[in-house]
Design a protein that fits this description.
It contains six helices and three strands; from the N terminus they run αααβααβαβ. The longest helix has 15 residues.
Length: 125
């Protein structure tokens, strides 16, 4: 049996992007979904309304403007993506453009807050 404590420590050291990719890989490999199952189905009158307002589950984090603190933005991009310095600088220099693509809402919101703290203007698409 695997050393669960060691696995938990390794997972705790992952970046948000790596954790998101790990979840996707496990879902695909095990044929399951990390989404919580619904206890009971929606009421019949609500079905049409729910389909019309289907909640978006994957977001792109788009860097709109770098702002005055370019170095801090590059550092934030490196933390979020695990890119090297050169690649992170290229992402920042290419703005407006995506930093993360097709990530969960929580990951996207966390990335947005980190980039905005660094002085960037960010949009979730």
């Amino acid at each position: 049996m695997a050393d669960l404590e060691k696995i938990a420590d390794q997972i705790g050291e992952l970046t948000l992007l790596e954790a998101s990719q790990l979840v996707e890989m496990l879902e695909e490999k095990l044929g399951v979904s990390a989404a919580a199952p619904m206890a009971m189905g929606p009421m019949p009158g609500v079905v049409a309304e729910a389909e019309a307002e289907e909640e978006k589950t994957e977001f792109d984090v788009v860097l709109k403007e770098v702002g005055p603190k370019k170095i801090q933005v590059i550092k934030a991009v490196r933390q979020l993506t695990s890119l090297g310095l050169r690649e992170a600088k290229e992402v920042v220099d290419a703005s407006p453009g995506p930093v993360l693509e097709a990530v969960a809402k929580e990951v996207a919101e966390d990335a947005r807050s980190q980039l905005e703290e660094a002085g960037a203007v960010v949009e979730l698409a």
